[in-house]
C-alpha cells in the first residue's frame, strides 16, 4: 500500500473527485480526514471508507472561513498526531460570459477556489514545516492552462492555483514539503453534470483518448503524487485530461 501510515486531509471530499480520492487514499493505507461544507455527504464518504476497513474522520468545513480551516488542521493533529498530505480539492463554478458575469459570481468562485486553497495551504504548511515533511496537492484544471468560454472567474482561480503551487514548491521545498497540482480535463462528476450534453460530447471528441475522465482517473494521479514514488517531483502540474490540451 502506497500511503501506509499517512494522514491526509481532503477538502470537498463529500462527492465527486474528492470522494474518489478519499476512498483511494484509504485503500492505499492512509487515515483520511473527509472535509466538506456538506456534512451529510462527508459522513457518507467516511462511512464508505470504514465499510472498506479504513479509518476516516468527517468534518464540516467551509474552506473560505479561516477559523474553520485552522480548526480542521487542529482536529486532525489532535486525532492523528500529524498531517502528511493535504489535497486542496474543494472548488466550484458559477459560469457566465464576461459581459454578463455578476460581482457575486466572480467573488464566490475566487473565494472558494483561490482563497480557500490559500487558507488550507497556509494552515497545513505551518504544521508540515514544524514536522519537516509533507505533501500539498492542489486542484487546478485544463481551464487553468488554456482558459475557457464562460469561465472568467474559474479560469482566473485555476491559473492562480498553478501560480501558488509553483510558489509554494519554491518556498517549502527546502523544508521537506512537496507541492504539486493536478489539472483534470473533463471529468464526470456533479460539477460537469451542470454542463450542456452538447459541450461534453464536443470535449470527448476533442480528446485523443475519446472519452471523458472518471473521478477515479484523477484520484489515481493524486495517490501517485502523494506517495513516496513521487519523492523527486515538486512544482509540477500533472494533466489528467485524455490529451485534450495537446
Ligand atoms: P463537485 O462534484 O462539485 O464536488 C466539489 C465538492 O466541494 C462538493 O462536495 C462541494 O460541496 C464541496 N465544496 C464546495 N464549496 C466548498 C467550500 N467552501 N468548502 C468546502 N467544501 C466545498 O466537484 P468535482 O468535479 O469533484 O471537482 C473537484 C475539484 O476538481 C474542483 O476544484 C474542480 O474545480 C476541479 N476540477 C474538476 C473538473 C471536472 O471536470 N469535474 C475538471 C477540472 C478541475 P457541496 O456539495 O455543498 O457543493
Automatic annotation (TrEMBL):
The keyword Ribosomal protein does not apply. It catalyses: a (3R)-hydroxyacyl-[ACP] + NADP(+) = a 3-oxoacyl-[ACP] + NADPH + H(+). Keywords: Fatty acid biosynthesis, Fatty acid metabolism, Lipid biosynthesis, Lipid metabolism, NADP, Oxidoreductase. NADP(+) binds at residues 12-15, 89, 154-158, 187. The active site is at residue 154. Coiled coil: none annotated. It holds the Pfam family adh_short_C2. Pathway: Lipid metabolism; fatty acid biosynthesis. Its EC number is 1.1.1.100. Residues 6-185 form the Ketoreductase domain. GO terms for biological process: fatty acid biosynthetic process. The keyword NADP applies. Catalyzes the NADPH-dependent reduction of beta-ketoacyl-ACP substrates to beta-hydroxyacyl-ACP products, the first reductive step in the elongation cycle of fatty acid biosynthesis. Belongs to the short-chain dehydrogenases/reductases (SDR) family. Homotetramer. This is 3-oxoacyl-[acyl-carrier-protein] reductase. The gene is fabG_1.
Amino acid at each position: 500500500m502506497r500511503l501506509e501510515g499517512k494522514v491526509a486531509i481532503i477538502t470537498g471530499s463529500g462527492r465527486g473527485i474528492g470522494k474518489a480520492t478519499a476512498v483511494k487514499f484509504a485503500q492505499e493505507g492512509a487515515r483520511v480526514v473527509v472535509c466538506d461544507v456538506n456534512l451529510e455527504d462527508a459522513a457518507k464518504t467516511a462511512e464508505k471508507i470504514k465499510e472498506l476497513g479504513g479509518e476516516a474522520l468527517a468534518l464540516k468545513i467551509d474552506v473560505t472561513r479561516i477559523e474553520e480551516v485552522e480548526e480542521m488542521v487542529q482536529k486532525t493533529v489532535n486525532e492523528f498526531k500529524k498531517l502528511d498530505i493535504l489535497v486542496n480539492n474543494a472548488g466550484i463554478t458559477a459560469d457566465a460570459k464576461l459581459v454578463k458575469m455578476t460581482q457575486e459570481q466572480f467573488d464566490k468562485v475566487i473565494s472558494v477556489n483561490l482563497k480557500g486553497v490559500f487558507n488550507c495551504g497556509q494552515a497545513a504548511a505551518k504544521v508540515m514545516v514544524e514536522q519537516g515533511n509533507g505533501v500539498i496537492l492542489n486542484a487546478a484544471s485544463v481551464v487553468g492552462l488554456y482558459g475557457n468560454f464562460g469561465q472568467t472567474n474559474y479560469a482566473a482561480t485555476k491559473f492562480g492555483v498553478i501560480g501558488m503551487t509553483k510558489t509554494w514548491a519554491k518556498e517549502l521545498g527546502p523544508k521537506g514539503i512537496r507541492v504539486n497540482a493536478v489539472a483534470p480535463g473533463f471529468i464526470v462528476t456533479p460539477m460537469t453534470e451542470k454542463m450542456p450534453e452538447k459541450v461534453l460530447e464536443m470535449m470527448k471528441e476533442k480528446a485523443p483518448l475519446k472519452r471523458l475522465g472518471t473521478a477515479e482517473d484523477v484520484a489515481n494521479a493524486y495517490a501517485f503524487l502523494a506517495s513516496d514514488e513521487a519523492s523527486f517531483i515538486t512544482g509540477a502540474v500533472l494533466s489528467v485530461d485524455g490529451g485534450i490540451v495537446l
